[in-house]
Amino acid sequence: MKQVLNILILFIMSSTAFSQSWVDTSLYPFENKFLRLEAGNMHYVDEGKGDLILFIHGTPTWSFLYRDFIMDLSKDHRCIAIDHLGFGLSEKPDSVSGTPEWHAQNLSEFIKKLDLQDITLVVHDFGGPIGLAAGIENSERIKRVVLFNSWLWATNEGKQAQKIDKALNSGLGKFLYLNMNFSTKVLLKKGFANKKNLSKEVHEQYIKPFPDKGSRIPLLNLGKALVGSSDWYQGQWEKLDPLAEKEWLILWGTKDEFITMENLRKWQERLPNHKTKEFECGHFVQEEKTEESINAIDTFIKK
């Protein structure tokens, strides 16, 4: 009976996803899959065969961020890209913490339930601490790591992080996030060094998963966790050794105004076996330097 109920739930979720008129299937032409986790139904795509690449997004994005990577790399590799609960086409459960710690637990459960092995783990933004924490817990399943602009250490003493934290915990910050969809409409665009690299059609695919106040709570929760989860980030940094010893490819946008070159140097000092490629672009390297990043990952895996 339980198995029949789960199948029915997945069918309903799949039907709901396909009825989402805002999803541009010319840009995102993938079969929608769902996995029932303890906290809710997680949407993901699973395309191609070969070496496994697991793509982890941050905020305010979803698996759409990696659409071109999946279309290209799935010719030779198996590409899995998730949507964190509360993002993209995944379920948006009510009354959850929505912290990076919580998302990392969900990702770890996802990895174990699908029994994923020999993973090339690709992380970005908040997907860095989320994905790397899940990777630390499942280090025997991780083969190599690809890192876009991200962090994994205490943030509570950073002046810019403190400024953002103060704003998000104010009445005005909460109003902008929940009522104006500020994260996707304004902050995402600010992450581009060249605004022309964000077309109206692509921007819409980042805005529309969050149509109302309730759907934007996950954005606010993660934003508050920039400093709110500072101790947890540092704890993961101190436990990184099982992953730090693996091969890493760092793909870094040098014009990122928040996750700056100082962060890059901290990663380089920590990782004994890394290769770095720097790109003159902003925070969203995947959108501004798409082809170059795809080629770098493909070469990294095939070498």
Automatic annotation (TrEMBL):
Keywords per UniProt: Acyltransferase, Hydrolase, Signal, Transferase
InterPro entries noted in UniProt: AB_hydrolase_1, AB_hydrolase_fold
Signal peptide: 1-19
Keyword flag ATP-binding: no
GO molecular function, one term: acyltransferase activity
Residue span, AB hydrolase-1 domain: 52-289
Pfam families recorded: Abhydrolase_1
Protein name: Putative hydrolase or acyltransferase of alpha/beta superfamily
Organism: Owenweeksia hongkongensis (strain DSM 17368 / CIP 108786 / JCM 12287 / NRRL B-23963 / UST20020801)
Lineage, broadest ranks: Bacteria, Pseudomonadati, Bacteroidota, Flavobacteriia, Flavobacteriales
